[in-house]
Request: fold
Amino acid sequence: MHDHGLVDTEADLRVLLDAIAGSPWVAVDTEFMREKTYFPQLCLIQLATPDHIACIDPLAFRELGPLKALLHDAAVLKVFHAASQDLEVLYLVTGKVPGPIFDTQVAASLLGHGEQVGYANLVQAVLQHELDKTQSRTDWSQRPLKSEQMSYARDDVRYLVPLFLSLQRELDALGRLTWLQPEMEALTRPELYQADLEGAWRRVSGHKRLKPKELAVLRELASWRENQARELDRPRRWIISDDALLLIARTRPTEEQALRELRGLPKGLGETQVRQILQAVQKGAEAPRETWPVLSKRRPLAEAEEVVVDVGMALLRELARQQQISPEAVASRKDVVALMRGEEDAALARGWREQVAGTELRRWLLGDCALRCDGTRIRMVELPGAADDPNVAS
Reply:
């Protein structure tokens, strides 16, 4: 594998991209910082193929035009591990979500490695190699980068190459490669990485404890905070905390003095910010009742239904075990509840999840079969005509 080192000139970038041109896939990883900013700061992009590896310094370029073309080339598969954060930062930098993609974390979950297995643990399990993770919390914005940082960064794609090939072969042998397609398409939807100012109130911890009118005020406050964080490029919590937003929404102050007397309010709030907060409170308080935010309230499960879901989860785990898939990758408890309630968009009612577990779970829920324990495991047994028997609970 040829190491192109740190690519920080236009000439070196062209050499790298020419070298990997024609490769049907490329392993990609990023290093970024966002502890002190609203937007993630892209600090490094790592690329690898079976024959080439490189670290690209985005801080050295005014724009990444040639690299954008590669990331958005529909003929080149981009391989990530736990892709969502990488996709977010690359979307913000390039204006488009890279694709098509292959996420080794998702692929591993379809092979029994756990729903959110970490990169180092997966490399250890599949390749029997232990990675050095001492640089995981390093400052990637500093220059020059240390040799330890460069080694760490290269390893994040060096082993992604054989990892991808191994997982792809195993999925193909089991006929599960097609299962990945809807999962990958879902990850590359642009709306996942676009700011949702109207829905910012849903991200405020504790919002479910507010009354409807208070939620209307919180909606305006959260939208204001989101705009402030974006404009100043600072974390939301640096603008004003969730607890302070909740308190303002509950008390709905109308005067500056009353606002400043609230506990948890940042001491550095300027006159303009105070005025904007009071305006947001007024706008939310005066919003018509029909426009107030509504929390989705599903009927709570009855005690007997909770028992049914408990048994359904046990059946789900057994069905996943038989297929050697992580149960968490197949469905959550909420998904089993949705199937039991007959919801049309239930994840277990479509795609590969229906094939693995949904069909059998539905048959059991309808009373077409039963569970039997032989002392060491549970198994399904047919109950002819049981679905029509009024004495069989469904």
Observations:
- The CA atoms of residues 210 and 250 lie 7 Å apart.
- Strands lie at 2-7, 25-33, 41-48, 52-56, 77-80, 101-103, 369-373, 378-382.
- The domain at 201-291 is CATH 1.10.150.80 (DNA polymerase; domain 1).
